[in-house]
Amino acid sequence: MPRSPILSASRIRTAALHIIDRDGLDGLSMRKLASELGVQAASLYGHVSTKDDLLHEVAAGILEQVDVSGFDGGDWRHGLRSCARSYRAALAAHPNIVPFLAYGPAHREASLRRLDVVHGGLVASGWSRREATMIAAALMYLVFGAALSSFSSGFSEDQTFYRDRYPNLDKAHLLPAVARELDHDSFELALDALVTGLGARAHD
């Protein structure tokens, strides 16, 4: 039997994501990752060169869950909706890595492949290249905005905090209890407004 655990790229990514989920982005270090895997830090460098490279690989694994197949049938509305929903779900499962992903596609293959499908699907539906870029950007603003924070859970559960000072927010203390449902419905409202608004000026 080997004296130390056998490493693989997949095992390293899984352990790194576990640390990020548990301790946040700043909590990930090559030394901590090595300890989690039961190896020496030097052993990791045969699989990944730097922490930044590792983060890109972890991000790529998350992005593989983003579904852009909705553009295959030529229905850009369905494509945008399915892409946005699957993207939000992927990010919601690992919120601590969202700030890293929010910097844009950079040179991540998984990001660029999906963006290429979205852009191509929009242009094929009659949108100009500039419009397609703007629509993709707007979709990312919506998805990452939803993933970075919870509007509903940010309120205090103390009714007295709002009742006398903010009469129109007298029920705001109830929001944290229904945050998950309300955040979902708010995202769907914004997504529908985006797609419907674009539909009003569509070329098809």
Automatic annotation (TrEMBL):
The keyword Acyltransferase does not apply. Residues 29-48 bind DNA. Residues 6-66 form the HTH tetR-type domain. GO terms for biological process: negative regulation of DNA-templated transcription; response to antibiotic. It holds the Pfam family TetR_N. GO terms for molecular function: DNA-binding transcription factor activity; transcription cis-regulatory region binding. Keywords: DNA-binding, Membrane, Repressor, Transcription, Transcription regulation, Transmembrane, Transmembrane helix. InterPro entries: DNA-bd_HTH_TetR-type_CS, Homeodomain-like_sf, HTH-type_TetR-like_transc_reg, HTH_TetR, Repressor_TetR_C, Tet_transcr_reg_TetR, Tet_transcr_reg_TetR-rel_C_sf. It comes from the Bacteria. The chain crosses the membrane at residues 135-155. This is TetR family transcriptional regulator. The lineage of its organism: Bacteria, Bacillati, Actinomycetota, Actinomycetes, Pseudonocardiales.
